[in-house]
Amino acid sequence: MKTENQKAWFFVLPVLLLVAFNALVPIMTVVNYSVQETFGNNVFFWQGLDWFEQILRSDRFQAALGRQFLFTFLILIIEVPLGIIIALSMPRNGFWVPVCLVTMALPMLIPWNVVGAMWNIFTLPDIGLLGYLMNHTLGIPYDMTQNPFAAWVTIVTMDVWHWTSLVVLLSYAGLVSIPDAYYQAAKIDGASAWKVFRFIQLPKLKTVLTIAILLRFMDSFNIYTEPFVLTGGGPGNSTTLLSIDLVKIALGQFDLGPAAAMSLIYFAITLLVSWLFYTLMTKDDAQ
């Protein structure tokens, strides 16, 4: 009988303990604020679960949560298929392989706040290259500072440009790991390109696509810097995602109790949906 070697845990355990400690202290601080109220001078009053009830019943929270889910949904249905298509189109060998890989990785190297600032300048209606091209050259009315639809198109396009590369690189790594024997057998059987993708490439990509979807969900569902720098949550509240609204409550209004309760609800939703994604995508593996 084969026995598993558990010695690797001795090397991982110190890191796990350090990460757990660094995560536990902030979470306990947030929990402490979420059940209390303060009027300053470091004086706190017990509030219980009232903040959680108020947040869950709040129209403001529900609207921001809906916008957050909509943004994440759009990101996933665009970036995952697009990343797979680009990965399938990339060469498997030769000079262009490192060129394509480096080119794909470049957007991810740019800091998040710089990405938001770049796209803000790029899309301004009068001085931005894209804004000027749309309004004055093509004659298409485009103003993300006034039009909610234009603002949504801009933040989604910005995220697609910034993070599709992650899906591309993960998918490409999965594709190059498929043995040539599978392709040779498919060629002998006369399989079409679609059948090769459907029955060989896609099943072999399942693991990396699970990682890609989980990473893109968690990142897009908790995104803050790029859309805040780009639109500031406007025009109006049209692009005020849940993350932006949480910061406004915590820092703008300095309502620490409601902000702490909202952050815990936010955290719980992220964990729950991530768990559902992982469970559904790995359901067949467990059988």
Number of domains: 1
Distance between termini?
Answer: 22 Å
Mean pLDDT: 90
Largest sheet: 2 strands, antiparallel
- Taken as a percent bin, the fraction of beta residues is under 5%
Number of helices: 13
Pattern of helices and strands: HEEHHHHHHHHHHHH
Portion in helices: over 70%
Shape: globular
User: How many individual β-strands?
Assistant: 2
Question: Strands of the largest sheet, in order across it?
Answer: 1-2
What's the CATH C level?
A: Mainly Alpha
Low-confidence stretches: none
| Second CATH tier, the architecture | Orthogonal Bundle
Q: CATH homologous superfamily name? A: MetI-like
What is the CATH topology?
MetI-like fold
Rounded to the nearest angstrom, the radius of gyration is: 23 Å
Tags for this entry?
single chain, 287 residues, mainly alpha, MetI-like fold, two-stranded antiparallel sheet, 2 strands, globular
How would you describe this protein?
It is a single chain. The chain is mainly alpha-helical and 287 residues long. It has one domain: MetI-like fold, CATH 1.10.3720. Helices cover 74% and strands 2% of the residues. The chain contains 13 helices and 2 strands. It has helices at residues 8-34, 50-57, 59-89, 96-109, 112-123, 129-137, 148-176, 180-188, 193-204, 206-221, 225-231, 242-252, 256-281; strands at residues 36-38, 44-46. Strands 1-2 form a two-stranded antiparallel ribbon. Helix 4 packs across helix 7 (148-176) and helix 5 (112-123) packs parallel to helix 11. The protein is globular and about 75 Å long. The relative contact order is 0.13. The model has no long low-confidence stretch (mean pLDDT 90).
